[in-house]
Amino acid sequence: MLEVKNITKIYGEGEARVVALSDVSLKVARGDFKAIMGPSGSGKSTLLNIIGGLDRLSSGEVVLEGRRVDSLNENALVDIRRGKIAYVFQQYHLLPSLTALENVLLPLMFGEVRVNIEKALDILRRVGLEKRVGHQPSQLSGGEQQRVAIARALVNDPLLVLADEPTGNMDQRTGREILDLFQQLNEGGRSIIMVTHDPEIARQAKETIVLRDGQIVDRVNQKKGR
Amino acid sequence: MLFAVIGVIIGTMTVVGIFTIASAGEARMIDQLEKYGPNLTVIPAISNVDMQLGGLSLGTLSVGENYIAEEKLPQIREIADSEIKEVMGIDDEGDIATIAPKLYINTKVNGTSVMVVGVEPQEEINIKTWWRVSEGEYLNHTDQALLGAFAAELLGLSSGDRIALNGADITVVGILEETGSDEDYQIFVPLETLQKAFDKEGLISSMDIRALCNACPVVMIADDINNSIPGVRAIAVQQVASAEAEMMGRINRFMLALAGITLAVGLFGVGNTMMRSVNERIKDIGIMRAVGASRNQIMKVFIYQAIIIGIVGGVFGYLAGTLLAYALGPVLFGVSSISPVSQYFPLALGIAIGVAVIATVYPAFRAARIKVADSFRSL
After folding, report:
1. What is the 8-class DSSP label of residue B205?
2. From the list A49, A81, A93, which residue is nearest B292 (CB)?
3. pTM of the model as a whole
C-alpha cells in the first residue's frame, strides 16, 4: 500500500548541512503495524513527517497506493489528509477552544462532506469518551486528550494512521490503554506506523525498524503470527 | 480582537458623523432657501459709475431709473410661468409663480424715520411664509398697516392706533412676530395706498418671485428676464445659496480627507491585530492543516473573522457616528437639527467590512502559507 524508496532528507546548506535521513526504504502493507525506534535525532519524526506529506524530501520517492505523493502540490496533499492518512501526535495537538466532540468533527468540517455528529459520537464512544464529549482539552487528562486525538484521526476513515510517540507523555498504565486502542485499530484492518523509543511498545508492532543517524540499522520482525 | 473592532468603529464613526452633519447642513440650507425668501428678486437696473478726473473722485453717478414700471409685471410673469411650465411639464393655463411687487419709501412716522413698504397683501404672505401676526390681524383693507415688531416698539404703536403717511390716514391692524431681519423695523401697507400717498402710481421698487419648486429653473428665468426686459435686473437667489453650498462642500471635503486618514489608520490597526492573531495561532493553523484544511479554508477562517469584526464595527460605528454628529454638529457647524440618516447604515456596514477584509487579506495569506511541520517545530 505504501512504499518508501531510498529517501534522503537534508536540512540546511554548507557548514550547517545536516543529513536527517539517508537512503531509507520501507514497505507498509494493508493492516501492517510498524514501529520506528531510535535515539533522539535519529530521524524518526522526520521519516514520519515525510511519509505523511508534512515535510518535503530531498531525494527518493514515497508511493501511496501506486501514486507518488512526495511531490504533490498543497491541494493534492489536502486530499490525502482527508481520508488516506491521519496523524496522532505526542502533544495531542487539539484545538484548545473546542470541545472534544468539536475537535473530532473538525476534519469533517474541513472535508467538505456532510458533518456527521452521530459518527463522531460513535467514535468517541469507541475510545471510551462518551461521557466527556462536551469537555474542552484543558478539562481532560493526557490520556483522554490522546483518545480525542485518536478519535479525530479515525473520523475520516484513514487507510494509514501515523503516530508520533503517542504515549510519550503518559504514565505506564495510561500508555498501555492507548496502545491497546492502537492494537484494536490495527486488528480492525488499519495500517499503523508508530514512532517510539520504548522497546516495550515496539514489541506490540509486527515489525520494528531501528534508525540511527538517519539510517536503518536494524529491522526486527516480531513474528506474532497474527 | 477588541482593538481591531475599535479601529473599525472609529473609522466608520468619523465617516458617518461627517456625512450625517453634512446632510443636516444641506437639509437646513434647502429648508432656509424654501422658507427664507423668494427664488428670484427683480430690481431696477441701476448702474453706479465712479466719476473720476485725473485721479480725483467726483462722486458716483447713478444711471437708470430707481423704479420699475408696474406694467412690466405681466411680462415678467409670462416669462417665469412659461419656463417653469416647460421644465416641470405643466400644460394648464393659470399663474404658477407667486410675484410680489414692493415699493419702498423712507419717511417719518410720528417724527421717527422709518421704512414703509407697500405690498400686495396676498402675494406677500405667500412668499413670507414665516410671517406670524402676534397682535391684531393681517392686512385686508387699503387703509391698514402692519408693523414689524421693533418698528411697533420704537414708535410706541399697538393695533388700533392711527398713523399718518404723508397725509393719508392709516390704522394699525397688526404687529408681526420678530423675524430677525430688516422686516422687524419696517411698516407694511397695501401697495396701492402707498403709491397714492407718495405720488408713485404705477411704480414699484422691486419684486420677489417665488417658484413653487426646488428644481425650478430660477437661473434660466433670471437670464430670460435680463435678456428680454430692459431696465430691470433679475437675480436668482440660488447664486447666493451656491456660495454657501460651496463653502459647505469645501468643509465636507476636508472632513472626508480626515475620515480617509482615520480609515487608513483603522486599516493598519486591523492588519496589525490580524497579523498578531495569525502569529499567536500558528500551532492551531498547523493543526487545522494537519486534519485536512486547505489553504483557502485557512484564509476563509480569517476573512470570516474580519467580516464579523466589520459587522460589529459597522453597527457600532454607525451608532457612534450618529452620536458624534449630535455632539459636534451644533458646536462645529451650527447645525442643530441633526437626525440619524438610515441610508448611511448600509454605507457604514460596507465601509467597516471593506476595511476589515482588506486589512486581513495579507495576514490571511500568510496564515495559509504556514506549513504543518514548521508550525509544530516552532513550539
Report:
1. S
2. A81
3. 0.66
